[in-house]
Amino acid sequence: MKWQEVRELFPNQFVLLSILDYHEENGKKIIDEVAPIRSISSENANKEFFKVKQGNIVYHTSNERCIVHIRKDPLLRARRI
C-alpha cells in the first residue's frame, strides 16, 4: 500500500507499519510501500516507537511523506579531551 493510501485510511493518527519497499536518497530511507498493522493512540505512541521490531515503524499520518533518517554509527560517542 502506498503512504498516501495509509494517510487516507488513518487520518491524523499514529500507525504501526511494516515496511515492504523503500529506496535511499541522501542518507534517508524513502518508504515506497507499507502494510499498516494497526493505529496507535497518541498516549502509547512513544512506548510503541521504542519497542517496534526490525522492519516496522511507528509514523504519524500528518506527514506528507514517509521518510526515515539513516544514522551512521548511532552508538559512536564523542571523546572528552
Write the layout of secondary structure elements.
Blueprint: H1 3-9, E1 14-25, E2 28-40, H2 45-51, E3 56-60, E4 67-69
Antiparallel strand pairs: 1-2, 1-3, 2-4
Brief descriptors of the model:
81 residues, 41% strand, four-stranded antiparallel β-sheet, alpha+beta, single chain
Describe this structure in words.
With 81 residues, the chain is of the alpha+beta class. It has one domain (3-69). The protein has helices at residues 3-9, 45-51, and strands at residues 14-25, 28-40, 56-60, 67-69. The chain has a 4-stranded antiparallel sheet with strand order 3-1-2-4. The mean pLDDT is 90.
Provide a count of the helices.
Answer: 2
- Quaternary status: single chain
What's the Cα radius of gyration?
Answer: 14 Å
Kindly report the spatial arrangement of strands forming the biggest sheet. Answer: 3-1-2-4
Report the structural category: alpha+beta
Structural domain count: 1
**What share of residues is helical?**
10-25%
Q: Residue-averaged pLDDT, rounded? A: 90
Order of helices and strands: HEEHEE
Strand content: 35-45%
Shape: globular
State the end-to-end distance.
Answer: 50 Å
Largest sheet: 4 strands, antiparallel
User: How many beta-strand elements?
Assistant: 4
Brief characterization of the structure:
By secondary structure, the protein is of the alpha+beta class. It has helices at residues 3-9, 45-51, and strands at residues 14-25, 28-40, 56-60, 67-69.
